[in-house]
């Protein structure tokens, strides 16, 4: 890893989750920016050089996470996106990034189901940043 | 002939061409009125003449009723009956036979035939049998789709509920772990915040459980409603008193404009749930030093309660979904306010018990006014006379 701290954008509508994950990731040496919905997230993306985004699927509107991931991948195609979701348990909807067909409509590099262990998240962040 | 709401497909299986034509003709002019559902059912029929023709026919077509001859040139009607039985199809079968003996009737019924017609029969006998079968078929189909719908709603409800319970647990769990591993220490600036947020999420969870109990009581119908003459103003005054502490914390003033007394028929706990939800919301979603104005208008048949706050207000699209289960408006203004998303939907359900309504008018950043109307006397009961 380079010595310059990487900038991570964390988007989730749960303020406690945002705070806790920010603290965890800062401990691991990242710069963390947080947003609780699409609008502030976009603002950060436009103003900052974001190296990786972690987006919760369910926000104020239930497809906000999809929309934001799609927008990130359209405007900043090189920025890796990790999608975090509690949706599998909630709707019975299951998806993954395994098949090419699924990759076409889910614009994320990795999908995690909540709760995500800190070390699991950090390992994935490092892997995606190394690929960059 | 009236317009039909539904058409049932009938397959006639008989090797006698005359029989098939006669039955088709009798059914083409037949309609059944299904009383319970208030719908009219018509029929469309097709005929095949053997077991093998039947096998080809059912590959591409689905039939609701089958008129089945006992004796076919290449097999027995009982074989078809048995196959349908094994596939547990919803299709109802009426057996027709010239060899009407007690044994064949028993055998056919055992294999699941719905009715039995002895040849020769009159068109009216055929129509009667088909009418009965059609009614049974349509009602069974409706009952099944109703059950499926109910199961789906219950599944969705439980899924959302478990998510709503899981979020605060995850949040509190997260703070405790950070405290436990020493990422947040008593001397750090986040210490107080972590504890306060944990307590707040716990309070939210407790509120969710209480609201859920309220809602279950109302929806299950198991709670005995105790409808009795009640002074609504006394309830409002009591709830104002209970909410005063929380209001004072944020410098909010509660005002009441109402008659001194207002008698209506109602269940004390139901009216408390409605009013407490609305008064408490008006405080929670208010601004510091704001106001809550409660106005009660009395008319001979109904009472109208308005609860106006000077709070954060709602966007028009937020107002539309406000009264549904588990809907919480999430934005920067509401992120530190705990709510279950069940309060207003319960208010709406209770108001309906009083043949009433609940509505909201609101302006973002200025405030919201919730208005509940309730019928004062239910089941056409007349206002109690004052005895002097």
Low-pLDDT stretches of chain B are 380-388
- What is the rounded Rg of chain A? 14 Å
Strand fraction band of chain A? Answer: 15-25%
The biggest chain-chain interface is: A-B, 21 and 23 residues
Query: How big is the Rg of chain B?
Result: 32 Å
* Anisotropy-based shape of chain B: elongated
Written as H for each helix and E for each strand, in order along the chain, the element string of chain B is: EHEEHEEEHEHEHHEHEEHEEHHEE
Strand content of chain B: 15-25%
Model description:
The complex is a heterodimer of chains A (132) and B (388). In chain A, helix 2 (38-47) runs parallel beside helix 3. In chain A, 45% of the residues lie in helices and 18% in strands. Chain A contains six helices and five strands; from the N terminus they run βαβαβαβααβα. A five-stranded parallel beta sheet of chain A has the order 2-1-3-4-5, with helices on both faces. Chain A is of the alpha/beta class and 132 residues long. Chain A has helices spanning 15-27, 38-47, 64-75, 87-91, 100-105, 118-131, and strands spanning 7-11, 31-35, 52-56, 81-85, 110-113. Chain A starts with 6 loop residues before the first strand and ends with a helix. In chain A, strand 1, helix 1 (15-27) and strand 2 form a beta-alpha-beta unit. Chain A has one domain: Rossmann fold. Chain B is an alpha/beta fold and 388 residues long. Chain B folds into two domains: 6-147, 3-Layer(aba) Sandwich (Rossmann fold), CATH 3.40.50.2300; 227-375, 2-Layer Sandwich (Heat Shock Protein 90). Chain B contains ten helices and 15 strands. Chain B has a six-stranded mixed beta sheet with strand order 2-3-1-4-7-8, with helices on both faces. In chain B, a hairpin with a 3-residue loop joins strand 14 and strand 15. In chain B, helix 5 runs antiparallel to helix 6, helix 6 packs parallel to helix 10 and helix 8 packs antiparallel against helix 10. Chain B starts with 5 loop residues before the first strand and ends in a 13-residue tail after the last strand. Classes of the chains: A alpha/beta (132), B alpha/beta (388).
């Amino acid at each position: 890893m380079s010595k310059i701290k990487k900038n991570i954008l964390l988007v989730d509508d749960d303020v406690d989750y945002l705070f806790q994950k920010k603290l965890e990731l800062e401990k691991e040496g990242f710069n963390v920016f947080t947003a609780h919905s699409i609008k502030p997230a976009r603002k950060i993306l436009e103003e900052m050089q974001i190296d990786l985004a972690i987006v919760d699927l369910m926000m104020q509107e239930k497809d906000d996470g999809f929309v934001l991931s799609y927008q990130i991948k359209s405007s900043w195609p090189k920025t890796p996106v990790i999608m975090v979701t509690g949706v599998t348990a909630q709707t019975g909807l299951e998806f993954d990034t395994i098949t090419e067909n699924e990759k076409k409509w889910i614009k994320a590099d990795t999908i995690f189901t909540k709760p995500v262990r800190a070390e699991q998240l950090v390992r994935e962040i490092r892997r995606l940043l190394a690929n960059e | 002939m009236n317009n039909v709401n539904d058409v049932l497909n009938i397959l006639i299986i008989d090797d006698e061409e005359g029989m098939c034509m006669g039955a088709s003709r009798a059914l083409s002019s037949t309609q059944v009125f299904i009383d319970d559902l208030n719908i009219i059912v018509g029929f469309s029929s097709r005929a095949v003449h053997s077991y093998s023709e039947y096998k080809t026919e059912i590959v591409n077509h689905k039939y609701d009723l089958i008129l089945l001859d006992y004796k076919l040139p290449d097999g027995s009607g009982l074989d078809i009956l048995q196959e349908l039985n094994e596939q547990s199809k919803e299709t109802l079968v009426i057996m027709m036979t010239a060899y009407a003996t007690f044994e064949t009737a028993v055998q056919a019924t055992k294999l699941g035939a719905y009715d039995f017609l002895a040849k020769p029969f009159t068109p009216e006998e055929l129509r009667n049998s088909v009418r009965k079968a059609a009614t049974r078929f349509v009602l069974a189909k409706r009952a099944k789709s109703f059950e499926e719908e109910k199961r789906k709603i219950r599944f969705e409800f439980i899924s959302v509920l478990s998510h709503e319970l899981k979020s605060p647990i995850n949040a509190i769990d997260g703070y405790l772990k950070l405290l436990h591993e020493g990422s947040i220490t008593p001397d750090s600036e986040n210490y107080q915040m972590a504890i306060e947020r944990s307590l707040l999420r716990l309070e939210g969870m407790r509120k969710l459980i209480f609201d859920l109990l309220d809602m279950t009581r109302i929806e299950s119908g198991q709670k005995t409603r105790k409808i009795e003459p009640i002074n609504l103003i006394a309830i409002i005054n009591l709830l104002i008193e209970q909410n005063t502490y929380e209001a004072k914390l944020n410098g909010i003033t509660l005002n009441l404009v109402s008659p001194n007394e207002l008698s209506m028929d109602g269940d004390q706990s139901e009216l408390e749930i409605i009013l407490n939800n609305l008064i408490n919301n008006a405080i929670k979603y208010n601004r510091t030093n704001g106001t809550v104005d409660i106005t009660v208008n009395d008319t001979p048949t109904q009472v109208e309660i308005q609860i106006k706050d000077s709070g954060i207000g709602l966007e028009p699209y937020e107002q539309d979904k406000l009264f549904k289960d588990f809907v919480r408006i999430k934005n920067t203004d509401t992120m530190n306010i705990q709510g279950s998303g069940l309060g207003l939907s319960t208010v709406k359900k209770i108001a309906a018990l009083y043949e009433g309504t609940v509505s909201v008018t609101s302006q973002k950043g200025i405030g919201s006014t919730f208005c509940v109307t309730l019928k004062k006397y239910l089941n056409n009961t007349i206002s109690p006379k004052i005895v002097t």
